[in-house]
Design goal:
single chain, alpha/beta, 8-stranded mixed sheet, 8 strands, globular
Length: 383
């Protein structure tokens, strides 16, 4: 941990990797990450031992993004994580509770999936590693939601964090698998995760995506720079880089009549995705407002892509955002081996459809053509 603390406290440029939540669509994120790893490996002399944890000083994720972030933080290559993820994803979402057993009524009403598959998979992947372990090779932030206090909890491995080492030393001993399980406990999918957080408190955690931080990029920037957190990294276009990767997104195209005739059930099924997308785009808007992003996207017809609209008059960071629309037009333009109907697209968007994990990875790999070497300036190279 002393080597890690030295890295945290160094005055050189800092690099942050942020990974969105999105269920099994995390496979799409891995398609992007393979390209990021390839670009950065080339930039660092094609060192066969290069890992993304060598480049990024803080890696963070929400929900499915926390699984990938945890694996990257212990030094795994993207290809290794892909193999883990494909196996784990099939087990997690492979056994839906689609029948009612009178002897398990309580379990049936609490969640659609058996959390034992998720827990066992995470335990196998991360073993006895804790948040305070020297096996973590870089900064890690697991974004979860504490349901009993309705607060976002960034679980970090910085030894000077206020809640890292409580009076009875519990927090630094939180198992990594347990922190990730907490961030992944999506309501209706899995039951909440209870964690002893020290000082006599047991906290009830649910998926970090049930918040403004399903896209955790802005949260990670705050963790890295605000005075209340321990990192205290300087801001500036040449001082901090945030690379944010999504899990794909649907595009709303509804007929007015369909909206007018919508039932309560229709609204209930659509509202979570609507709110999740609003939160993600708001995160992206603020970060584009703070930067001259080379990947800036158009927010709407009035704001455009915010280039030139710096909130403080000068950029506070270098910001990269990679994500792709999951639409008929976009998928069919990728030449994926079939013509996608709207029904096919709806199936791809579904976050618990484990059968899509291979094609989602391919979609991410195809979409990663937008990642350019010049997006990662040499001033951020690890020397």
């Amino acid at each position: 941990m002393s080597d890690l603390l030295t890295r945290f406290q160094s005055t050189g440029p800092k690099r942050i990797l942020s990974l969105d939540g999105g269920g099994i669509r995390g496979a799409l994120t891995l398609g992007y990450l393979q390209k990021v790893e390839d670009v950065l490996k080339k930039q660092h002399g094609n060192n066969p031992n290069f890992r993304l944890c060598d480049y990024f000083d803080l890696i963070g994720g929400t929900s499915t993004g926390s699984i990938i972030a945890g694996a990257l933080s212990i030094g795994m290559k993207v290809e290794e994580i892909k193999n883990l993820y494909m196996d784990l994803g099939g087990k997690i979402f492979g056994e839906k509770r689609n029948w009612w057993n009178p002897l398990e009524t309580a379990k049936f009403l609490k969640a659609n999936y058996n959390h034992a598959n998720l827990e066992n998979g995470l335990k196998k992947a991360f073993g006895d590693i804790t948040l305070g372990s020297d096996k973590l090779k870089t900064g890690l932030c697991i974004v979860a939601k504490r349901a009993d206090t309705n607060s976002i909890w960034p679980l970090i491995n910085h030894p000077d964090g206020k809640f890292f080492d409580s009076k009875d030393g519990k927090n630094k001993n939180i198992m990594l698998w347990q922190a990730i399980r907490a961030s992944s406990a999506a309501p209706t999918y899995f039951v909440p995760q209870m964690i002893d957080v020290g000082d006599g408190q047991t906290a009830a955690f649910v998926d970090g995506g049930v918040s403004m931080a399903n896209n955790p990029a802005l949260t990670l920037l705050m963790v890295a720079t605000l005075g209340g957190f321990p990192f205290h990294w300087a801001t500036g276009e040449d001082k901090i880089l945030v690379c944010s990767i999504g899990t794909g997104f649907s595009v709303f195209k509804k007929m007015v009549k369909d909206i007018d005739d919508a039932t309560m059930i229709t609204w209930a099924s659509n509202v979570p995705d609507m709110l999740m997308q609003d939160a993600s785009w708001q995160n992206q808007l603020v970060l584009q407002w703070l930067s001259n992003s080379p990947t800036a996207k158009t927010m709407d017809m009035e704001m455009g892509n915010l280039q030139g609209d710096l909130i403080s008059g000068e950029p506070k960071l270098t910001y990269l955002r990679y994500n792709c629309p999951l639409t008929q037009d976009n998928l069919n333009s990728m030449q994926l081996g079939k013509t996608y109907s709207q029904k096919d697209v709806d199936g791809i968007v579904e976050m618990s459809n484990a059968g899509n994990r291979e094609i989602l990875y391919t979609i991410g790999a195809k979409a990663s053509i937008e990642i350019k070497e010049e997006h990662f300036p040499l001033k951020f190279k690890v020397y």
